[in-house]
Amino acid sequence: MNQTTNARPKIAIIGAGFGGLWAARKLAAADVDVTLIDRNNYHVFLPLLYQVAAAEIEPEQIAYPVRSILRQHPNVNFMMAEVTGVDFADKTVQTSVNDVQYDCLIMAMGSRQHFFNVPGAAAHAIALKTVNDATAIRHKILSYFELAVNEPDAAKRRALLTFAIVGGGPAGVEFAGALRELINRPMQRDYPRLDFADVRVILIEATDEILNAYTDKQSDYALGRMHDMGVEVMLNTRVDEVFADGVQLSDGTWLPTHTVVWTAGVEGETLPAGWEVETKGLGQVDVLPTLQTTTNDDVFAIGDMAYVEAGGRPIPMVAQKAMQEGEHAAVNVLHLVNGTAPTPFVYKDLGMMATIGRNSAIASFGRFHLTGFIAWLMWLVIHIVNLIGFRNRLVVLINWAWDYFFFERVARLILTKEGTRQ
Ligand SMILES: Cc1cc2nc3c(=O)[nH]c(=O)nc-3n(C[C@H](O)[C@H](O)[C@H](O)COP(=O)(O)OP(=O)(O)OC[C@H]3O[C@@H](n4cnc5c(N)ncnc54)[C@H](O)[C@@H]3O)c2cc1C
């Protein structure tokens, strides 16, 4: 590898999500200088984002400042900046702040919400993808309850209190359950003058089952739990168009609502300007088994933005994929720096789990498929352990316990400047 200077090799990493952060940590003890770039100054634990949207926990409890995480690693520099392009010939990352020179580049920019070109979706639906999205959703829900309680027109009141969630995957199901739990107890107690028959949480799924990555038995269990909790699940139903005041469904139904939360799909993040590269799967960058890109040996792509297969099938966009690839790309970067050959990435499938509500979850580990309370306990422990920061773990645990025993949600202030979309 030709280094740009005689100094230590310069490694640039774009994205401080699960992929980029894990790569940076792996390189922390190495004889290289790392620049980690992200548009935000924090790392987000996305698996609990839906709880922010459902007013269960505060954003600060799932987001952690990158500089604090990297405090112990003097060879890793953090830059808060928007990456606008990459000059691969000049080995330079162009950002909204400064250009960053590199000898090796790891791209870990994640994914963005995919609206499948459904008319009106990008304009009127809110994605559940960032902290801003989650706080905007929370703001909308809480504000609409306040508007509804003083709305004399019954049809307008019902539209304010109808919450549509598009996509029956883990994010949609988890959010629908958490929202129904917010409504069923804390909101019912606080709004005694509202008729809660007017409040609807509707989960819209285009296929004939929810959580279709799980077994049929687990999907049926989740569907049953959704019904028990009061979530209306519409299967085999597509959203044809989203408007500011409602949703047009494929079966001809017009659903009056001002809140459409879009969890139906994701695609690879927009690539930096100046990069003509083949994409596969869900708009992801095609990479070699070593995670190097097919166009540039010194550029790696990992996490949600990279298309990688295991056992002949694409690995889903999950945190484990990003973390494992981040560490592997870091090791391969060191191979390049030391003049040795990079090695192929081997994915270790650690299983998957989703929570449906109080006391119920589903989990699959290889041939073992669990449903119910034990799966829920495992979900709790795994998510608490994986949160970054002892204080966050403690505060989230206290919030969960408070909610579990007293049916009370703490994060219910309506802060008008929150979120990007009002
Ligand atoms: C609501 C939700 C729930 C989820 N639940 C689970 C779950 O329960 N279990 C699970 O395993 N996975 C879950 N996932 C998926 C998991 O979070 C992702 O697979 C994982 O975050 C991918 O890691 P990544 O590093 O590729 O991308 P990300 O973690 O998304 O990080 C990408 C980073 O790149 C930054 N970035 C992007 N573009 C630019 C740019 N141009 N300039 C500067 N910075 C940029 C972003 O700010 C971000 O910090 C969930 C995802 C969501 C959205």
Tell me roughly what share of residues is in helical segments: 25-40%
Number of strands: 28
- Return the average pLDDT rounded to an integer: 93
Number of helices: 11
Q: How do the helices and strands line up, and which of them pair or pack?
A:
Blueprint (H helix, E strand, L loop, with lengths): L9 E5 L3 H9 L6 E6 L3 E3 L4 H5 L9 E3 H4 L6 E5 L2 E5 L4 E4 L4 E2 L2 E4 L3 E3 L7 H4 L1 E2 L3 H19 L4 H7 L1 E5 L3 H21 L9 E5 L11 H14 L1 E4 L4 E5 L2 E4 L4 E3 L2 E4 L3 E3 L10 E2 L3 E3 L12 E3 L4 E2 L1 E2 L2 E2 L4 H20 L13 E6 L2 E6 L2 E5 H14 L3 H17 L16
The protein binds flavin-adenine dinucleotide.
Explain what the structure shows.
With 422 residues, the chain is α/β, with parallel strands linked by helices. It is built from 11 helices and 28 strands. The chain has a 5-stranded parallel sheet with strand order 5-2-1-9-22, with helices on one face. The protein has a 5-stranded parallel sheet with strand order 11-18-12-13-14. The chain has a 3-stranded antiparallel sheet with strand order 6-7-8, with no helix packed on it. Helix 5 runs antiparallel to helix 6. Flavin-adenine dinucleotide binds next to helix 1, strand 2, helix 2, helix 7 and helix 9.
